[in-house]
């Protein structure tokens, strides 16, 4: 019989991250914020995505994100 700690560890190990796909409205919003030069951290909070995710998507769309110094 397994201990409770082992059972909990197995449940944690089985958890898989789920990717949230970008919809057309997400892309439209990202482009609008790019044009307005909204800081990436603020856009991340608004869209409920990580800053890295937004930067990668902006890179793939060939648009800037936030204020580039």
Proportion of helical residues: 55-70%
**Record field, number of beta strands:** 0
Query: Which structural class matches the secondary elements?
Result: mainly alpha
In N-to-C order, the SSE pattern is HHHH
Oligomer: single chain
Largest sheet: none
List keywords for this structure.
69 residues, mainly alpha, 61% helix, elongated
Write the layout of secondary structure elements.
Elements: H1 4-14, H2 24-35, H3 40-47, H4 51-61
Write up what this structure looks like.
The chain has four helices and no strands. The chain is an all-alpha fold and 69 residues long. It is elongated and about 60 Å long. The N and C termini lie far apart (59 Å).
Question: Would you kindly provide a brief summary of this structure?
Answer:
The chain has 69 residues and is mainly alpha-helical. Helix content is 61%, strand content 0%. The longest helix has 12 residues.
């Amino acid at each position: 019989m397994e201990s409770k700690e082992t059972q909990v560890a197995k449940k944690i190990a089985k958890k898989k991250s789920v990717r949230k796909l970008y919809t057309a409205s997400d892309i439209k919003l990202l482009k609008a914020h790019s044009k307005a030069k909204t800081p990436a951290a603020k856009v991340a909070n608004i869209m409920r995505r990580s800053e890295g995710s937004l930067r990668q998507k902006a890179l793939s769309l060939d648009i800037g994100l936030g204020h580039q110094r």
